[in-house]
């Protein structure tokens, strides 16, 4: 407000530090994002400020270094904005992602007491202010004390989007201030997917969420993304804005991960904001969410681990069989189960043993839907950790057992039907051998029709170890094909 009129701020040099000053001046908690490009719409009349460069400690944006009021080289398409946290702020920290915790309640800021402060509470706060997850502190960091604020005890379940949604209890007793130190890495999120573990990949940098370009985007990058999101294994990578195009920045391009990095921002890349892309090339990912395979020879074999209460744990091999394995292989988009492994075949896991005495029919979408005791109820040690080996490149659909059905193969990044044209005993022999299902008994059968419009004509000599090593000829998309099927003896 200047000369009796309101005016906007230009986004040249607009940063998270500038936004931090605005949030504090507005008594609006911790800064979350600095917005550029008239994100909240274009203003009218004057543009009062340009080239604002705060240090972060100023009490008002007008006290930050800037061009003279009214001097600018901008249009309203460059109006700056902010997103503040509203209900929570971290005080006296070394950056915006750590400090003493205060919450806004009943028109006043109150300090949060450490006596009832839990990991779940800290999780909610770090997530609310886009600061990743809380670091575990053996000795709580000291960020001073609030002497003139009333105290409040909070209780969060852990899945709330804001600490304002948690339960609060005022206290008149003196209490020690709760503190939190969030990872303050470049947190990522998955947007517009079907669950929390699928979607367009976005990374937070300089106060803004931005997308990742799909140049060089592949399974190693997806693996890092899924692990960073605590979302299990990568099932597939998505290109060309599969989950819709983002807005604002494209932050990363030409990412080349080894697959072992802790965060996507740690992988080699061009540099933040350096790219030759637009939002039609935004990268996406689909992760397995609540199940993962560890220590296997490929992405479709390994020790089975499931996610419960935010922690990964193993499955005991009591009653573990091919029907249970079938559920895991389907959830991992890994074709048909070949073998159910017991006795910690893929090495012993650590931590909790979440499931025991699992008894699936085989058609469930998740192990958690199978008949079983409650999570954590078991009489096992990690020497009994269960595992699976899935076929990875082939699956049999709608059969009467795991050794019969309509044949589909994974090729070129998708599943497609095998055509019945020229389908014979040679091709069936390869399928039965690859599935550990003995010899072919019948080469055709009525196992329903697939929904896929694509398919392959397959030609094998009969000696190949995998159907994908046979000669494959793709049918044009949209052509209707008669699908091949097989029935194997089931005896090796």
UniProtKB/TrEMBL annotation:
It holds the Pfam family SRCR. SMART domains: SR. GO terms for cellular component: extracellular space; plasma membrane. Disulfide bonds join 10-74, 23-84, 54-64, 156-166, 213-277, 226-287, 257-267, 316-380, 329-390, 360-370, 460-470. The keyword Glycoprotein applies. SUPFAM superfamilies: SRCR-like (SSF56487). Keywords: Disulfide bond, Glycoprotein, Receptor, Repeat, Signal. Residues 1-85, 88-183, 188-288, 291-391, 394-489 form the SRCR domain. GO terms for biological process: zymogen activation. It comes from the Eukaryota. GO terms for molecular function: serine-type endopeptidase activity. Binds to extracellular matrix proteins. Binds to pathogen-associated molecular patterns (PAMPs) present on the cell walls of Gram-positive and Gram-negative bacteria and fungi, behaving as a pattern recognition receptor (PRR). Induces bacterial and fungal aggregation and subsequent inhibition of PAMP-induced cytokine release. Does not possess intrinsic bactericidal activity. May play a role in the innate defense and homeostasis of certain epithelial surfaces. Interacts with LGALS1 and laminin. This is Soluble scavenger receptor cysteine-rich domain-containing protein SSC5D. It comes from Amphiprion percula (Orange clownfish).
């Amino acid at each position: 407000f200047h000369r009796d009129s309101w005016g906007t701020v230009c986004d040249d040099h607009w940063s998270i530090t500038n936004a931090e000053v605005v949030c504090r001046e507005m008594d609006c908690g911790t800064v979350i994002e600095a917005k550029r490009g008239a994100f909240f719409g274009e203003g009218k009349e004057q543009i009062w400020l340009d080239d604002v460069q705060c240090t972060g400690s100023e009490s008002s944006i007008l006290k930050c270094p800037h061009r003279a009021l009214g001097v600018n080289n901008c249009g309203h398409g460059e109006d700056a904005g902010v997103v503040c946290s509203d209900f929570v702020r971290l005080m006296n920290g070394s950056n915006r992602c750590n400090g003493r915790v205060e919450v806004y309640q009943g028109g006043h800021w109150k300090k949060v007491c450490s006596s009832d402060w839990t990991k779940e509470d800290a999780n909610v706060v770090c997530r609310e202010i886009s600061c990743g997850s809380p670091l575990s502190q053996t000795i709580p960091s000291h960020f001073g004390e609030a002497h003139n604020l009333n105290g409040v005890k909070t209780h969060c379940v852990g899945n709330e989007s804001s600490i304002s949604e948690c339960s609060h209890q005022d206290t008149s007793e003196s209490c020690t201030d709760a503190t939190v130190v969030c990872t303050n890495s470049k947190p990522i999120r998955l947007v517009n997917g079907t669950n929390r573990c699928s979607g367009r990949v976005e990374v937070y940098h300089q106060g803004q969420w931005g997308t990742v370009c799909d140049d060089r985007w592949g399974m190693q990058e997806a693996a890092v993304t899924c692990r960073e999101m605590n979302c299990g294994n990568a099932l597939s990578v998505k290109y060309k804005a599969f989950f819709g195009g983002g807005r604002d920045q494209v932050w990363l391009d030409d990412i080349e991960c080894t697959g072992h990095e802790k965060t996507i921002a740690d992988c080699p890349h061009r540099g933040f904001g350096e790219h030759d892309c637009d939002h039609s090339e935004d990268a996406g990912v689909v992760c397995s969410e609540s199940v993962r395979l560890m220590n296997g020879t490929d992405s479709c074999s390994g020790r089975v681990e499931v996610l419960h209460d935010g922690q990964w744990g193993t499955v005991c091999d009591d009653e573990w069989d091919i029907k249970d394995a079938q559920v895991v292989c389907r959830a991992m988009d890994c074709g048909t189960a070949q073998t159910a492994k017991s006795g910690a075949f893929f090495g012993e896991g650590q931590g909790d043993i979440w499931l025991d005495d699992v008894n699936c029919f085989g058609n469930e979408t998740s192990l958690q839907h199978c008949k079983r005791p409650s999570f954590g109820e078991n009489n096992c040690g990690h020497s009994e950790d269960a595992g699976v080996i899935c076929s990875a490149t082939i699956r049999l659909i709608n059969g009467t057992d795991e050794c019969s059905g309509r044949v589909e193969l994974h090729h070129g990044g998708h599943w497609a039907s095998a055509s019945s044209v020229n389908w014979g005993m040679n091709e069936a022999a390869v399928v039965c051998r690859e599935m550990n299902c003995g010899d072919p008994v019948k080469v055709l059968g009525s196992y329903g029709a697939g929904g896929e419009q694509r398919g392959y004509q397959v030609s094998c000599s009969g000696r190949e170890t995998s159907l994908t090593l046979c000669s494959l000829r793709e049918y044009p998309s949209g052509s209707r094909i008669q699908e091949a099927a097989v029935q194997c003896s089931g005896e090796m």
